[in-house]
Amino acid sequence: MFNGTVSAEFGNLVNLQILDLHHNKFTSTIPETICSQDNLIKMDLSTNNINGSIPDNINECSSLSEFL
Questions:
Q1: DSSP 15
Q2: Which residues contact 30 (CB under 8 A, 6 or more apart)?
Q3: DSSP at 13
Q4: Rounded distance, CA 32 to CA 46, Å?
Q5: If residue 67 lies in a helix (H) or strand (E), which one and from where to where?
Q6: What sign for the dihedral angle of Cα 12, 32, 48, 66?
Q7: Residues 6 or more apart from 29 whose CB is under 8 A from it?
Q8: Strand order across the beta sheet in which 42-44 lies
Q9: Is 59 strand, coil or helix?
Q10: Reported pTM
Q11: Could you report the per-residue pLDDT of 6-15, keeping only the tens digit for each?
C-alpha cells in the first residue's frame, strides 16, 4: 500500500494510458500535470484520501473515458 502524495511526475509520462492508484493511502490533491495527458484513457484514484477539487484542466484529457 502506498501513501503520501500523488506525484506530479506522472504528467511527464507522455505514453501513459492507465493510471490505477486505487486502494492506497494517498492524501494529496490531483496534480494538474496528470490531467494534461493526451493518451490517458483511465484514471482510478478511488479508495484514497484525495482532497481538493478536480483540476480545471481535466477536460484537456481528450481520451479520458473513465475517471474514478
A1: T
A2: 6, 45, 50, 52, 54, 55
A3: -
A4: 17
A5: strand 66-67
A6: negative
A7: 6, 50, 51, 52, 53, 55
A8: 18-20, 42-44, 66-67
A9: helix
A10: 0.86
A11: 999 999 998 9
Q: Residue 52: what pLDDT?
A: 87
C-alpha cell at 50: 484525495
CA 52 to chain centre: 13
Residue 38 has pLDDT above 90, yes or no: no
Q: How far apart are the first and last CA of the chain?
A: 18
Structure-block grid coordinates of residue 25: 493511502
Contact present, 24 and 49 (Cβ < 8 Å): no
Grid cell for residue 16: 501513459
